[in-house]
Write a structure and sequence with these properties.
The chain has 53 residues and is an all-alpha fold. 89% of the residues lie in helices and 0% in strands. It is built from 1 helix and no strands. It starts with 5 loop residues before the first helix and ends with a helix. 0% of the residues are buried.
């Protein structure tokens, strides 16, 4: 049986919370980049339409 002190439990909790925050941050960044990519595609299509018009 491994004995874990309260201090160690606190540290483990902090590391887990940091990990969750990182994952949330990565998800937000991925969503943002996807939106940016979509916006760029739309802008490119608009430019193409303006050239042919």
């Amino acid at each position: 049986m491994i004995v874990v002190t309260d201090k160690q439990k606190e540290t483990i909790k902090k590391v887990e919370d940091m990990g969750k925050a990182d994952i949330d941050g990565l998800k937000a960044a991925a969503i943002f980049l996807k939106g940016l990519q979509t916006a760029m595609i739309i802008l490119a299509e608009d430019k193409q339409e303006n050239k042919t018009a």
